Amino acid sequence: MRSNNPAFSRNEAFTRGGYATFDVQTPSADQLEDQYSMPSPVRERAMTLEDVVTRTGIMFAVLLATAVPTFWGLVTGAIGLGTGFLLTFGGMIAGLVLGLVISFSKKVRPGLIVTYAAIEGLFVGGISAIYTLRFGDGLVGQAVLGTLVAFGAMLVAYQTGLIRATGRFRKILIIATMGYLALGLINLVSVFVFNQPSIWFDTGILGIGLSLLGVTLASLFLVLDFDFVEQGIRNQLPQRYAWSAAFGLVVTLIWLYLEILRLLAILRGSE
């Protein structure tokens, strides 16, 4: 089973074979003798759930450290709209690039992961302010609460076995997500090239349905993330991989938050 979250799917450490199965070769007699004559290396302790939770908390603390000032500055007018635009969409692009670098890197890079959280905070704070200015107060708090509720529900569903990360589950989820992303790309082209209204913010049944689909897909991806964190712990990965696990969870939670925020905005706009 491989997660579609790039933080896990590109990392063999989170597969069921585990860290201990990498490039296993039978040593020769001379190699064994050399190994026994060398001093025993200090082995990095295995990753635990507490390590993952701690590093996830660190990432969110850093994210909030940039998101809150950006949000507050835009809402109160302390940050101009031009500067706010650059911070928001500059953070989005930079976060996307840095996220891809982290996902495709063969090494765990805590510095880049923390930097990603800081940059992503600019985008999250900025886009949250834009929604607030457009649709009114209270939207962000409701989206945060909705994200926490969805996270808790998926965690309970996973732990109780109500939803299992089976091969069929993964295939259906990937196909649905690919279709969702393809539709988003087509919509983007129609808006900027053909000057058509965006169906992504349609206040009718179509817009609400698409938004509900996005929330559902993001929520279900949490199940895959939980599964691969569990496999990493079970395979006794080195402690540094807790950063990769935290990165994967944060990426999915940000996606979920943005989908819920958009759904709430559509529902408020249709009133």
From TrEMBL:
Coiled coil: none annotated. Keywords: Membrane, Transmembrane, Transmembrane helix. The lineage of its organism: Bacteria, Bacillati, Actinomycetota, Actinomycetes, Micrococcales. The chain crosses the membrane at residues 52-72, 78-101, 113-133, 139-160, 172-193, 205-229, 241-258. It comes from Aquipuribacter nitratireducens. This is Bax inhibitor-1/YccA family protein. Pfam families: BaxI_1 (PF12811). InterPro entries: BaxI_1-like.
